Amino acid sequence: MIVRTAVLERLAELAKLGAYERGIDRTLFSPAEHAARRKFADWARASGFALEQDRVGNVFARRDGAPTGRAPIVVGSHLDTVRTGGAYDGAYGVVGALCALERLGAEGATTRHPVEAVAWAGEEGSRFPLGCLGSGAYAGLNTLEAIEAIVGDDGISFPTARDGPSGLLPGVPVRDGFPRPAACLELHIEQGPSLERAGARLGVVSAIAGQVRSEIDVVGEAGHAGTVPLIVRHDAFAAAAEIALALETLARQLGECVVTVGYLVVEPNQTNIIPGRVVFRVDARSVDDTRVERLEAGLRDECSRMEIQRGVTCGIKLLERRAAVPMDGGLRAALHTALESLDNKLMPVPSGAGHDTMCVATVAPAAMIFVPSAGGRSHVGDEYTTPEDLELGVEALVRAIVAVDRLLAEKA
Ligand code: HGY
Ligand code: MN
Ligand code: MN
Predict the structure, then answer these.
(1) How many Å apart are CA 363 and CA 183, to the nearest integer?
(2) Distance from the first to the final alpha carbon of the chain
(3) Structure confidence by residue, pLDDT tens digits, 119-172
(4) What is the number of the ligand 1 atom nearest to the C-alpha of 354?
(5) Dihedral of the CA atoms 392, 396, 398, 404 (nearest 10)?
(6) How far is the CA of 57 from the centre of ligand 3 (A)?
(7) Which of 91, 285, 325, 355 could form a disulfide with 211 if both were Cys (CB 3.0 to 4.6 A apart)?
(8) Which protein residues have a CB closer than 5 Å to ligand 2 (ion)?
C-alpha cells in the first residue's frame, strides 16, 4: 500500500528555484541553491528533526532512534544541478529521504540507528571543478584544505562563496569533522533507459560506474582562414575533433563503456580564423575500471598522434578519477527482499551516472534504489518520472531504511 507523502509538492517547489527556459540552473552556493537548502532545512525543522551542517555545505536532518549510541544511517542526495538540469536529479533523493523520515515518525517506528536525511553539497561539479564535493569531503576523499583551495568557474573561491550570503545556512549549527556513518542509502532517478525498457518500476543498483575526467589543452597556430593552405595548418580544433572521434570509436570497440566531450572552448573562436587553441574535457566511464584505463591510454595515444601529424601540442590534465564502486552485497540482498513485493519486475541495475553514494561507499556499506526516467533522459530540462513512480520510490526507501537498520543491528 503506497502512502501519499509531500514528495510531489516539495519537488514542484524546488523545481522553481533556478528555473529558466533551458531547465534548472542551481549550482552550489548560488542564490537558488541556497534557497533550496533553506527549504530543506525549514521542512526538516517543521518535522522536528535536528539540523546540522558541515564546513563544505552538507546539511543533515537527524531523526534519533533507540539510545544505542550507534552511528547514523545516512540517506540523501544532492540539491545542486547541472546547468540545464531537471526537477528530479538529486532533489528527488533529498526530498525522498525527508519524506521517508516523516513516514517513520508517523508510524512511530523506532530504529536502532539514528537516521539522517542529507543534502550533499555540490555533487554535480557545475560551479567548482570537483564532482561529489560534499560527499567526497564527508568520506575523507577530499581534504577541507584542498576544497578551500578550489576556485569556481566564475573566479570566486570556495571559501568566499561558502562564507557569502548564499553559503552556509544561518542559524544551523556547524559540525566539526566528518563522522563515519553506519550505512548509506540513496534514492535516485535512473537517468538511463534500463528500467523503462524492462517495464520495471524499481531497481536496486549493482554498481556505480567509475569515471575519469581529463582536460586537454591543444595548442596549434591561429591564422587566416582564407589564405593558409590546409597542408601547412596546425588547426587546434581539427586535432581535438580527431581525438574525440577516435575515442568514440575506441569506446564502441571496447563496449560497456562511454566517453563524452561535453566541454570545449575554441580560441579565438571567430569564423574566419583558424583555431589556435582548444581546451576540451573528456568524461570516460565504465563499471569496469580496466575499460576506463584503456580509454585513458587511447587519449594519450591520440594526443601523441596529433602532435606528430598536425604539429600541435596537447597537454593532458587529470581533473577527477573515481573508481567503479560495487554496492554492498548484504544491503543489496536486504533491499531485494524488502522491495520485491512492491514491484514484481524489481531488478538489479548498474548506474552509468555518478552519485554521492560512490564516495560514502568508501567508508560504509552503501546501496541505491532507482526509479525509471522517462525515455532514459536526464541532465535536460524535460527530465521526467511519473508521480506514481516517485511515490513508489519513497515507499521503497522507507522499507529499505527499516531493512538496513535491522540487518546492521543483527550483525552488530
Ligand atoms: O555526472 C554524473 O554522473 C552526475 O550527474 N554528477
Ligand atoms: Mn546529475
Ligand atoms: Mn544525481
Answers:
(1) 9
(2) 31
(3) 999 999 999 989 999 999 999 999 999 999 999 999 999 999 999 999 999 999
(4) 3
(5) -170
(6) 17
(7) 285
(8) 89
pLDDT tens-place string over residues 352-388: 999 999 999 999 999 999 999 999 999 999 999 999 9
- Measured in angstroms, how far is the CA atom of residue 363 from the centroid of ligand 1? 20
Å from CA of 239 to ligand 2 middle: 29
- Residue 98's H or E segment, with its range, is helix 91-106
How far is the C-alpha of 65 from the C-alpha of 331, rounded, in Å? 20
Q: Cβ neighbours of residue 60 under 8 Å, at least 6 residues apart?
A: 51, 52, 53, 54, 74, 116, 117, 118, 175
Per the structure block, which three cell numbers stand in for 400?
Answer: 529499505
* Ligand 3 geometric centre to CA of 354 (Å): 7
Find the 49 Cα to ligand 1 centroid distance in Å.
29
Q: Are 246 and 297 within 8 A, CB to CB?
A: no
* 352 CB near ligand 1 (under 6 Å): no
Task: Pick the closest to residue 356 from 25, 181, 147, 135 (CA basis).
Answer: 135
Q: Is residue 131 lining ligand 1, measured as CB closer than 6 Å?
A: yes
Residue range 238-251: average pLDDT?
98
* Residue 365 to residue 274: CA distance in whole angstroms: 52
Residue nearest to atom 6 of ligand 1 (CA): 124
Whole-number Å distance between alpha carbons of 243 and 229: 22
Cα–Cα distance between 25 and 19 in angstroms, integer? 6
Contacts of 322 (CB under 8 A, 6+ apart): 131, 132, 210, 211, 212, 354, 358, 359
Mutate which of 26, 213, 379 for ligand 1? The one with the most ligand atoms within 8 Å of its CB, which is 379
68-77 pLDDT, tens digit each = 899 999 999 9
Residue 264 has pLDDT above 90, yes or no: yes
Provide the 10 A C-beta neighbour count for residue 216: 23
Question: Domains in the chain, start-ordered, CATH in brackets?
Answer: 7-209+324-411 (3.40.630.10), 210-322 (3.30.70.360)
DSSP 174: B
